[in-house]
Each structure stands twice: as structure tokens, then as C-alpha cells.
User: Which sequence fits this backbone?
């Protein structure tokens, strides 16, 4: 685990530990050998590198981030830790979001994700009030610059009450279409929501766009937009990928009602992404009161119904989440604790690797012969060792060679924090 370079040509990582769910084995963890040749996984052979049981995982997929918001906390901190405090603070900071500002913070975030072992990222981009004219071109530049390191997708972010078949929303949708993006919407209870959703899905279908929602990001049990989205998908016959994120309120609803909603979600073929760290930070926060709810959605019940469930980073060092570093191992570690992923199925690793990749339409290589040797190696030999420590000494291989894992220094962003 202390090697800085690997042999050139063909070599074998001898005696590694891999999750059975990645290789198709029935066992939870398997000790094996992994051959690497010409940057791809191959049959064992060539020079041996002894690994002493070190755990090897495929690179991560982070399917719900906000690269455009990332790291504004020093100039735009949440005044009270609440959702409304976050929303108001971000909106007040929007005048600072020039192409230069957004680009520098996106670059910082991508450097962090890459160093931690992420190969695929989907980011939501605030698009209202003309922001799409600044942020989407920057996204296109970053997608090109990071090609071969991180596959990058983008989703437009706009509130459901701003939907219209004319005006700015239509222009945003055209931009999304031109840039091969995903049409996004934040859904919450407003008058006429069913008509809004119907129009939204009709627009997406006509423009051949998949969709991605922020859904029921509240602990209010009366918020049932997840259920309504599923009903509208079924009624309209929309047949492209539908991703719904957060889905917090279903965890607070009557059991029978919640389960019937999940049945509709499964029937509609929707895919769910849970954001456990951000939701734990924001939800059920009341000054002077200890929080009772965790904010996480019903991931076990969803998975039991065949609904693809993923976990993702969400926000990083912005008013919606003051912490985070786009480290998907941290996400999986915290999700395991928050949502009790232990003592259940042994394939939850897929929720941060292949499941989000497949949900977003990314290629999802694993550890099969011929797959790119894009791997993360940890000193840990089993799950409790992996989750007990941050694993900052991990080794990330891309095309079979260790990358420089030096994280960017926060001081690189100091010049941006003087904006007003």
C-alpha cells in the first residue's frame, strides 16, 4: 500500500479483497487476484504486486451534486441551518455567480471528486433569472476539459412554480437540449401542480429529454409530490428515465399511505437518489430542539420493490450543507450509519457505483475482464475497517496507474470570497 508507481506493462494485484456483488460471487467479500494489462483488467499474469488483502473497489459515481453552489460558505453561510435559510442565502449570492466564479468553484469540486476516486458526476445547475446563460457554457467547458477523467452530466434546476411553455423556462429547456443535458424541476405542493407536471413531462417528451427532480425535501407528511409525479408518469406514458431525489416526506407519512406511494413509484419505473448527509443537516432542524428525524428516505422499502436506489453527495460547503468534499466513500459510510445499511443485503456498494451510473445512463465498468482498470485501493480488508476510518491513504488507479491524489487547498478560492 506504500507504492508510488506500479509496474509498466502487465502486472497482477495479488491477494486483494473485493465485494462479491461486483464480481457476481455469492459471498459478501472475496479474496482474489486482479490482473492489469494496457490499462485494463486482465487475467492474472506478469509482475506480482502483493496486496495483503487490501480492498479494491471500482470508481464511484456521484449522481446528484451542485458544483455551481460548491464552496460559497465563506461568503454566504447559512444563518440558522434551515432549508429556508439556505434558499435565501443562495439566492442573495447569485449576483456573484459570474462565469469566472462558477468555473473556479466547479474546477475545485471536480479536483476533489477525482482525487477521492469518482469517475462520473451529475450536477444540478441553478438556471433561473438568466443564470443558465452563465453556468451552462462553463459546464460545457468543464465537460470537455475533464473528458477522460470524469464523465460530467448536468441538470437544469428551477422551481416548479416557474414552469411555463413560454419565456425563460422554454429557453432553459432549449439550452439543456443543445448541451445534451437533463431537464430538472424542484417539486413541492403548489396550486395546479398536476397541470405543471403534465406540461413538464409533455415538454420533456417532445424535446427527447430525460428528467431529474428535487422532490419533497421536507419532513412535512402532507407533501406528496413524489406520489403525484408517479401518477403523472403513468398517466402521460412518459418513457424516459425519471430520477427523483431526496423524497424525505414519505418517511414521515402513514405506513399504508407511504407504501402505496412506493408501489406507484415502482410501477412508474422511477429511480431514487437519497442524499443522507444534506438531509440530516437540514431536516427537522428547530432552534433549541434536538432533531427527531434523520431525513433519509425509505431506501430499504424502495429497494425491496425493485426501485433502483442510489446515494450521492449533494451540496458541499454551501448554505445547504456546510461540510462535505465530494468523497463518495464518506457518503457510503454515512449512509450505512444513517439508514442502517448494515445487517441487510450485501450489495449496497452498487448504490454508489453501478446503480447511479445505470440510472444516469453512464457506462458502468466494474471489475470484469476488459473493463478499464479504474480502481480504488484501500488498506482496509473488510467493511468495518473500511468504514471506521476516512481512508485518506487510499490509492486511486486510472487506466491501471496511480493518480496524484493531492487535494486542492481552500486558499485557492480565497480571491472569490471577497465578492459582494
Assistant:
Amino acid at each position: 500500500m506504500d507504492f508510488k508507481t506500479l509496474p509498466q506493462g502487465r502486472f497482477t494485484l495479488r491477494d486483494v479483497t473485493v465485494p462479491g456483488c461486483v464480481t457476481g460471487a455469492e459471498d459478501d467479500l472475496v479474496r482474489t487476484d486482479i490482473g492489469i494489462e494496457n490499462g485494463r483488467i486482465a487475467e492474472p499474469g506478469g509482475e506480482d504486486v502483493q496486496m495483503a488483502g487490501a480492498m479494491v473497489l471500482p470508481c464511484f459515481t456521484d449522481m446528484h451534486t451542485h458544483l455551481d453552489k460548491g464552496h460559497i460558505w465563506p461568503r454566504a453561510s447559512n444563518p440558522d441551518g434551515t432549508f429556508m435559510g439556505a434558499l435565501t442565502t443562495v439566492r442573495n449570492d447569485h449576483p456573484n455567480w459570474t462565469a469566472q466564479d462558477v468555473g473556479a468553484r466547479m474546477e475545485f469540486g471536480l479536483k476533489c471528486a477525482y482525487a477521492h476516486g469518482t469517475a462520473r458526476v451529475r450536477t444540478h445547475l441553478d438556471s433561473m433569472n438568466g443564470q443558465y446563460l452563465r453556468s451552462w457554457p462553463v459546464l460545457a467547458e468543464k465537460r470537455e476539459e475533464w473528458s477522460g477523467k470524469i464523465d460530467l452530466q448536468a441538470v437544469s434546476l428551477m422551481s416548479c412554480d416557474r414552469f411555463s411553455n413560454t419565456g425563460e423556462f422554454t429557453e432553459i429547456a432549449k439550452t439543456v437540449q443543445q448541451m445534451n443535458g437533463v431537464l430538472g424541476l424542484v417539486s413541492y405542493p403548489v396550486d395546479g401542480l398536476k397541470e405543471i407536471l403534465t406540461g413538464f413531462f409533455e415538454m420533456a417528451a417532445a424535446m427527447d429529454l430525460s428528467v431529474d427532480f428535487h422532490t419533497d425535501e421536507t419532513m412535512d407528511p402532507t407533501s406528496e409530490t413524489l406520489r403525484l409525479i408517479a401518477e403523472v408518469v403513468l398517466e402521460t406514458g412518459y418513457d424516459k428515465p425519471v430520477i427523483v431525489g431526496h423524497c424525505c416526506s414519505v418517511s414521515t407519512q402513514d405506513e399504508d399511505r407511504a407504501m402505496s406511494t412506493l408501489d406507484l413509484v415502482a410501477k412508474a419505473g422511477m429511480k431514487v437518489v437519497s442524499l443522507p448527509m444534506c438531509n440530516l443537516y437540514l431536516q427537522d432542524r428547530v432552534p433549541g430542539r434536538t432533531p427527531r428525524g434523520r431525513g433519509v428516505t425509505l431506501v430499504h422499502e424502495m429497494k425491496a420493490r425493485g426501485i433502483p436506489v442510489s446515494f450521492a453527495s449533494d451540496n458541499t460547503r454551501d448554505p445547504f450543507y456546510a461540510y462535505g468534499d465530494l468523497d463518495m466513500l464518506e457518503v457510503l459510510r454515512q449512509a450505512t450509519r444513517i439508514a442502517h445499511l448494515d445487517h441487510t443485503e450485501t450489495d449496497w456498494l452498487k448504490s454508489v457505483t453501478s446503480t447511479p451510473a445505470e440510472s444516469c445512463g453512464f457506462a458502468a465498468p466494474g471489475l470484469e475482464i476488459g473493463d478499464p482498470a479504474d480502481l480504488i485501493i484501500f488498506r482496509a480488508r473488510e467493511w468495518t475497517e473500511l468504514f471506521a476510518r476516512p481512508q485518506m491513504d487510499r490509492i486511486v488507479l486510472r487506466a491501471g496507474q496511480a493518480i496524484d491524489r493531492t487535494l486542492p487547498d481552500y486558499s485557492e478560492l480565497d480571491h472569490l470570497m471577497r465578492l459582494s
In short: The CA atoms of residues 333 and 388 lie 8 Å apart. The chain has a mean pLDDT of 96.
